[in-house]
């Protein structure tokens, strides 16, 4: 049994893993980040190949999260590289709204994420960007810093004003890392595969720290999935998430 608050089970219990999602409200959205990686913290090889690091149970879990949120958000890099559908297909439930963080309007109108299927579609852009979008896709303009980055906390607040009470930040790793660094995540689900890649693209990337005492230490429950992956359900709002002990 791991030390601290980590607990193990044969499979994730929905009432334990998903019950915090009920706290979400449009004026205070609940935000969960999700990341799948190898045992040595890689999300892809040096060539970018990543299908599939995690097993089918982890994919089922990801789709279960999608079915329980109002919207799923990805960065434009992930949308361009993977051309994801971001729909619910592996479990029962409705597909959430699809949100792409695309400050410069780079995502083509033909991308799968913009496909008309009844789900809401939202493009997040810097003010002044006016790239073409398919009919029915909403454009939400947000202020950006000098480097063109939009504050994750401003994104959460803006989506809340659109009625989004529960948000999944699905990828990529840079987008999840930015939301984590900004304190914009309530929960983090990290799915770890018992695989050693050795080199490649890292998962979470945060600002350097000088001592281990400065590290984030969220309360975590662990769940062993059916095909060997391990889910870390990290509570980033508990006292234990603060750096230092």
Write the layout of secondary structure elements.
Elements: H1 14-17, E1 30-38, E2 42-44, H2 56-66, E3 71-75, H3 76-82, E4 97-101, E5 121-126, E6 138-142, H4 152-161, E7 166-171, H5 173-181, E8 187-193, E9 201-202, E10 219-224, E11 230-235
Parallel strand pairs: 1-7, 1-8, 3-4, 3-7, 4-5, 5-6
Antiparallel strand pairs: 2-9, 8-11, 10-11
Overview of this structure, please?
By secondary structure, the chain is of the alpha/beta class. The protein has one domain (29-198, 216-239): Dihydrofolate Reductase, subunit A (3-Layer(aba) Sandwich). It is 17% helix and 24% strand. It is built from 5 helices and 11 strands, in the order αββαβαβββαβαββββ. The chain has a 9-stranded mixed β-sheet, with helices on both faces. A two-stranded antiparallel sheet has the order 2-9. Strand 10 (219-224) and strand 11 (230-235) form a beta hairpin. The protein is globular, with a radius of gyration of 18 Å. 38% of the residues are buried.
**With helices defined by DSSP (H or I, 4 residues minimum), what is the helix count?**
5
The CATH superfamily title: Dihydrofolate Reductase, subunit A
Rg for CA atoms: 18 Å
- Report the count of strand segments: 11
**Largest β-sheet summary:** 9 strands, mixed
Helix share of residues? 10-25%
What fraction strand? 15-25%
Can I get a quick summary?
The protein has 5 helices and 11 strands.
Which features characterize this protein?
245 residues, Dihydrofolate Reductase, subunit A, 9-stranded mixed beta sheet, two-stranded antiparallel sheet, 5 helices, 11 strands, globular, disordered N terminus
